[in-house]
Design goal:
- This protein has about 140 residues and is mainly alpha-helical.
- It starts with about 20 loop residues before the first helix and ends with a helix.
- The longest helix has about 45 residues, at about 95-140.
- The mean pLDDT is about 85.
- It has helices spanning about 25-30, 35-45, 50-55, 60-75, 95-140, and strands at about 45-50, 75-80, 90-95.
- α2 (about 35-45) crosses α5 (about 95-140).
- It has a three-stranded antiparallel beta sheet.
- The protein contains five helices and three strands.
Length: about 140
């Protein structure tokens, strides 16, 4: 039985800083590392499941299937069964997904561009932390 229940958008206040805000679930979904990789992969157009598996190294079939299903459930991805003699299903960004894709692809590009700086900052922090710890241990002796 299909639900025809509609959400009263006026009654739903969005405040991501509130623990009770439903938008927190959206943030949880789109902040997933796999979603952050699926979106740029689909940004170029529809892809089959096997293409996504090859493109996104390290993701398991189970996690890819679960993530695509959740993205489809939230209206961000559409699943198209091309109804050929052998199973042929493609996934693509929905119009809502495309509106989000611009932001996520920009985040992906930013990460690729700035990861050396982040790695250097991490090394500098760890070296300084190690230096401070060493001085404390020395003083305690």
């Amino acid at each position: 039985m299909e639900s025809t229940k509609k959400i009263d958008m006026e009654a739903v206040r969005s405040d991501v800083f509130s623990a009770a805000c439903p938008s927190r679930k959206v943030l949880e979904l789109i902040a997933s590392k796999w979603v952050l990789l699926i979106f740029p992969a689909l940004d170029g157009g529809p892809m089959r499941n096997s293409e996504l598996l090859r493109r996104i190294e390290g993701i398991s079939q189970k996690v890819l299937t679960q993530t695509l299903k959740e993205l489809e459930r939230n209206g961000l991805v559409t699943r198209c069964d091309l109804e050929t003699s052998s199973p042929h299903v493609e996934y693509e960004l929905s119009p809502l997904g495309k509106s989000l894709s611009t932001t996520l692809v920009a985040l992906d590009r930013w990460t690729n561009q700035h990861y050396p700086e982040l790695m250097q900052a991490r090394e500098d922090f760890d070296a300084e932390d190690e230096n401070i710890t060493g001085r404390i241990v020395h003083k305690l002796r």
